[in-house]
Amino acid sequence: RSNAEKFEFQAEVSRLMDILINSLYSNKDIFLRELISNASDALDKIRFLSLTDKDILGEGDNAKLEIQMKLDKEKKILSIRDRGIGMTKEDLIKNLGTIAKSGTSAFVEKMQTSGDLNLIGQFGVGFYSVYLVADYVEVLSKHNDDKQYVWESKADGAFAVSEDVWNEPLGRGTEIRLHLREEAGEYLEESKLKDLVKKYSEFINFPIHLWASKEVDVEVPADEEDSSDEEESSESSSSEEEGEDEDTEKGENEDGEKKPKTKKVKETTYEWELLNDVKAIWLRNPKEVTDEEYTKFYHSLTKDFSEEKPLAWSHFTAEGDVEFKAVLFVPPKAPHDLYESYYNANKSNLKLYVRRVFISDEFDELLPKYLNFLMGLVDSDTLPLNVSREMLQQHSSLKTIKKKLIRKALDMIRRIADEDPDEYSDKDKKDVEESSDNDEKKGRYAKFWNEFGKSIKLGIVEDAANRNRLAKLLRFESTKSDGKLTSLDQYIKRMKPGQKDIFYITGTNKEQLEKSPFLERLTKKNYEVIFFTDPVDEYLMQYLMDYEDKKFQNVSKEGLKLGKDSKDKELKESFKELTKWWKGALASENVDDVKLSNRLANSPCVVVTSKYGWSANMERIMQSQTL
Ligand code: ADP
Ligand code: MG
């Protein structure tokens, strides 16, 4: 094009496109749901802006918040258009030429090894999936703040942007034209597109229309027999092959009547056909929504189409001062970067709607950090519609919503633990990681713990109000768990009569801890000791002081009491000289005190940490962090 400005793709984008265009990946269908999802996002944006500025939508067709698809069989073009927010020239260059989000190279890496493109939408590069089926793509776009532009690329490392003086004005929004590759002919079939929308885009909240052919009976004057050329409307000029089944009966009809004034013929007409029924799943009665529907909704919500089922969900209505409906999901897997930026980013994965209108998916006020692994949405009737995001963020109802969400989330997680046996061995753990097809058979809580256990621990540290509830969800191994996971409730059930404290020990791994001299006497006396082997456990135990009125006692620390011994005092007296001598010999910068102990069985002596000091394991963790 004469007025085109040329740009090179960011290297990372180029690499991604190369992979996509050369991909032998069989499931090329995914491009359509990515485009529809982008169209839906763009519509959400304009609708949100229109809440505070009514004029922004314009009039007539422009105000229709919808998605339209059209086929041009002759030219092999599939186009998808929306009346969303559109893109300015600058947007086109930035959004369709660079990758802003992190994790893309991780995705490219993963894709090259696994060949699975199902997660593409989650990585913020879904648009480029058009190159799975097209070798040339045009993006026409009109934003309220700019003229209409066209972006185009043949995926050859470069793209061009020019002012669009060739195409009809869009009014507002974006049209993506895919010039389909030879082998992607199936996407020119209406039935294929209908199937795909049904399968993947069922939960899009805007109407999706297809310019679809329809056979109708029409009466035509009997003497105008060769009218087939004019039968099709001008808009469908490209689909001439569908006109062929007409005019089979000529002259006489079945009754043998001669020369009737009119006759019936089949004619192909075109009209917009609605492909989805726009009903929000969260407004329905939970009893009437099937598991399959929830699973599909989860996939569309998270753009995770890996076919895995969510581990659990909770769909509820909150009533009272603050009314809202919500659906929460526990994903089957933790996202790759869940803990990477834990303390810097607070990105909740809940979408906020106010009275069915999408407001934001970047609200941090809905859930505490440690529950950021949850997916879902909240739709509130109580929150005001026509205020800015900033104002909403400060609305007093949010506190109540958050509180209820946490409660429901923890209930949901507890339910997984109640419903599914969570004891599983190390061997099973491996199986869970290695194969996904026998997932169903494994305890869901074991899976949950494997993926999100750390979040529960961080919750115990951060959320004092729910500490006890979270502690109930804690799982660990112990001297008596026999290679399986166990809980505090189970520990308490196994406690010896008269045992007051819950014993635990911290370290790098179970094997090392099992040999620890700190355990000798305890195991000999048949006490159970919990193994805490995750670095985060040290922090955890600084906050978790007791559970069900039982105190936690680190067995490597001073103050371990295993019941009274009548000879204690006597012994202490008779060893006084020795302990005194030792304390002098070891010097005060090395030890605080030297004491007689009954905690050992075989080892002659042991170094313990003072009650309020860091455990040896904590020292090790701190050292590794500062070095
Ligand atoms: P993501 O949707 O995750 O951001 P994509 O690769 O699908 O990633 O799209 C990249 C960006 O291009 C979007 O964030 C959006 O800004 C822009 N975009 C894509 N399609 C449209 C559209 N139909 N209307 C407006 N903007 C769009
Ligand atoms: Mg997208």
TrEMBL record:
The keyword Chaperone applies. Residues 217-263 are annotated as: Disordered. Belongs to the heat shock protein 90 family. Residues 218-249 have a biased composition (Acidic residues). This is Endoplasmin homolog. Residues 27-184 form the Histidine kinase/HSP90-like ATPase domain. One of its GO terms (molecular function) is ATP-dependent protein folding chaperone. Residues 250-263 have a biased composition (Basic and acidic residues). Keywords: ATP-binding, Calcium, Chaperone, Endoplasmic reticulum, Glycoprotein, Nucleotide-binding, Signal. GO terms for cellular component: endoplasmic reticulum lumen. ATP binds at residues 34, 38, 82, 87, 95, 101-103, 122-127, 174, 389. It is found in: Endoplasmic reticulum lumen. Its main location: endoplasmic reticulum.
